[in-house]
Amino acid sequence: MAKQKRFATHITAANGKRVYLCAGSKEELDKKVLQAKIAMHSGVDITCDFTFEEYALSWLKAYKSPPNVSEHSYLLIEANMRNHVLPFFGAMRLRDVKPMHIQLFITGMSSYSKSLQSKCLQIVKGVFLSAVEDGLLVKTPVSQKHKPAGEEPEEPEPLTDEQAAELLGNLRGKRPYAFVLIALTTGMRRGEILGLLWSDVDLDRNIIHVRHNLSFACN
């Protein structure tokens, strides 16, 4: 079997380093050289070989860790990056990621909720926008056409008065009773109820002051 012919050349970057380019045809090589020169003219460091994972973890530490965001938000972002984003993009070089890869990533997450898809896409978008600002890319591969698929979850149907009374009746004398009673009679969210302190409760005036919100991190 005949060996496929390869065409190669090199260009010298602004920092003096040589960047070697190769392609399967002269036309493809000329295109790569032109793209590299345009990138250099735009101030992009074409000698940078950061993988997505290397840069994304630095981005996470610089922009998405406390005190920039809450501890809870950081843990959620870190978990989504670790569980969904890095397994797909992690080993790829930043400059090798194309719009098609972004679409394949979205398609691969089609079995997950639209909300989770949106969160993961925001992570990817944030990483690439930061890479552009740092002069590692000419432009981001994420565009307006890249949108999470799937349907929004249906609005939950509230309990009827009869169902609420039955629920409380079954919980009477059990540990969750007070929690469910507060939820049903005040409309407070789970985190607000879990964050209640005795100093928030005014028994003389029958008032509960919502001052705290307790949430549990994913790990």
Annotation keywords:
two-stranded antiparallel sheet; mainly alpha; elongated; 219 residues; two-stranded antiparallel ribbon
Q: Can you describe what's shown?
A:
The chain has 219 residues and is mainly alpha-helical. The chain has helices at residues 26-41, 52-63, 71-89, 99-108, 114-133, 161-171, 177-186, 190-194, and strands spanning 7-12, 18-23, 201-202, 207-208. The strands form two sheets. The protein has a two-stranded antiparallel sheet with strand order 1-2. Strand 1 (7-12) and strand 2 (18-23) form a beta hairpin. Helix 3 packs across helix 5. The mean pLDDT is 87.
Largest sheet, in brief, is: 2 strands, antiparallel
The run of helices and strands is EEHHHHHHHHEE
Shape call: elongated
Radius of gyration: 26 Å
Structural category: mainly alpha
Give the termini separation: 54 Å
Portion in beta strands: 5-15%
What ranges have pLDDT less than 50 throughout 5 or more consecutive residues? none
In quaternary terms, these chains amount to: single chain
- Count of helical regions: 8
Assign a percent range to the helix content.
Answer: 40-55%
Number of strands: 4
Summarize the structure.
The protein has about 220 residues and is mainly alpha-helical. It has helices at about 25-40, 50-65, 70-90, 100-110, 115-135, 160-170, 175-185, 190-195, and strands at about 5-10, 20-25, 200, 205-210. Helix 2 packs across helix 5 and helix 3 crosses helix 5 (about 115-135).
